[in-house]
Design brief:
Elements (H helix, E strand, L loop, with lengths): L1 H27 L3 H21 L9 H4 L7 H6 L3 H32 L5 H16 L2 H12 L4 H8 L7 H4 L1 H26 L3 H9 L4 H12 L1 H16 L3 H6 L11 H11 L3 H25 L5
Amino acid sequence: MAIGEDLAGAVGRVTAPRRARAARATRHLPLAPALIMLFLFFLGPVLWSVYSSFTNAALTGDGAQNPQWVGLENFRRLFSDPNVTNGIWLTVVFVLGSAVIGQNLLGLGIALLMRGRNRWLRGTVGAIVVSAWVLPEVVSAFIWYAFLGQDGTLNQVTKALGIGSQDWLYSSPMLAVIIANTWRGTAFSMLVYNAALDDVPTDVQEAAELDGATGWRRLWSVVLPLIRPSIVTNLMLITLQTLSVFTLIYVMTAGGPGFASSTLPVLMYQQAFKFSEVGYGTAISLLLLAIGAVFSFVYVRVLKPEA
């Protein structure tokens, strides 16, 4: 009898961990469809892009039917291509101009100006700014194309004033797309900073005011350090969003004239789908990913809270 009980106890001790592992696996089983979908539609394309960047994959011909492994050939070509060098420069200018300076500072400025204003004014300004943000990107692009084009609204105004006219999308294509992207994306930064400023303790600001700190001094020494995490989050999100902007630029200028506004997303599209060099296009996409990582690293390091 005692031997039987000992045997049963030993069997129980052995099977208990198995039952626990089975129970844990059963609890995680409902996550399986979501994980499969995540792999298929997120991680799968990323892995395919990395693999394709080392091949001569193409949309048509032998490269489409039987892509060959070419090693680092696409990357060697990448760093010797003057159009890619120009695209890197234009991408950095576009991000700094429209995201870091345009959307970020304009959104912070609007949020600060709306502090303490009456509800009607805040609601009206907020609705106007957000209305640009909710428009589809292609609609925003057509609006600015119609405004800055040869026969656009801006030229009609300058003609009426006797100033003359010009094709702004041809003479200043980067400035045109920077202004358009700033106009479209400022609402996001404004909403982020509105929420951040609401969390700044009023007693801290009042104490700084009693100590004689001016408005600019309170902003620089009190408000901005307190909302530093929101600044980092906002900069990272708008930078990553701006790095991927394609439709706005392509509709307004198609990357031209020449390559004057061919940022990396536009150049990647042209190489992959216009010239059918999918492998080379995916190599450019990895370069774009690296630039986003560099911007994120700089934000985290520069704006890291002081110990």
